[in-house]
Amino acid sequence: MLLMIVYAFCGNAQQVKEPATNSPEWSKNYAPFRIAGNLYYVGTYDLACYLITTNKGHILINTGLASSAKQVKNNIEALGFKYNDIKILLTTQAHFDHLGAMAVIKKETGATLMADEKDAEALANGGATDYEMGKYGVTFAPVKPGRLLKDGDSIALGDIHLEMLHHPGHTKGSCSYIFTVHDGQQNYRVLIANFPTIITDRSFHSIAAYPAIEEDYAYTLKAMKGLQFDLWLASHASQFGLHEKHKPGDKYNPEAFRDQKGYDELLDDMQQAFDEKVKTGNK
């Protein structure tokens, strides 16, 4: 994949090299909208960011690229919410395309970052120790979580309770979130899934920085198959077919995201890719 390097500097003077594809979807603007109940989409065209609102403040999941901080803020305010009311920050994985703006948003809002404990090291060093992106050095501004989470831990704010699901493989601390939202008419059990995209350019056994990667992938694929939910979303809009399910200006329609078939098919594709890689000796 052709990469270009974007240079920036974080507060501690570490140089940040953000590898980015030339695909415009990662930074392209996308109109924010209400998904279901108090859950909103505030991300870019392809990098999914989610706002969960409560009477005690808000939760933001993912931030997109470092350059997306203003987009996310504008999207939140366009929905009528206050940016500075963000109290909790979460991410689905410690990669620059999902938390590139995390350090900035954390500083601007004073919100507490909570993260899977297995991604704590990568968060602290800007991804420099990540088995895949670490070859580029520091790819996002280092950020320290205020709370480290384990599988099954609860995140509570106001009347919302999220459960963090440890789904490692894509990163050591990749995770998903499951929770219930209400819209006055119905309750919806929502899964924000972090799919374990299978690395293809080398064998699992050659990844010295992540010796448990094959076992973690196997665990996550099995764990994700047993989840029960009404609606599902993902870390990338393209993964859950956002642009087929919602067009800017569409009316509120949670049912558009009730797609068990799409979830099962995507998970099956990843299982097949994993099984083939193992079968062929991890080539």
TrEMBL record:
<dbReference type="Pfam" id="PF00753">
    <property type="entry name" value="Lactamase_B"/>
</dbReference>
<feature type="domain" description="Metallo-beta-lactamase">
    <location>
        <begin position="46"/>
        <end position="236"/>
    </location>
</feature>
<dbReference type="InterPro" id="IPR001279">
    <property type="entry name" value="Metallo-B-lactamas"/>
</dbReference>
<dbReference type="InterPro" id="IPR050855">
    <property type="entry name" value="NDM-1-like"/>
</dbReference>
<protein>
    <submittedName>
        <fullName>Subclass B3 metallo-beta-lactamase</fullName>
    </submittedName>
</protein>
<dbReference type="InterPro" id="IPR036866">
    <property type="entry name" value="RibonucZ/Hydroxyglut_hydro"/>
</dbReference>
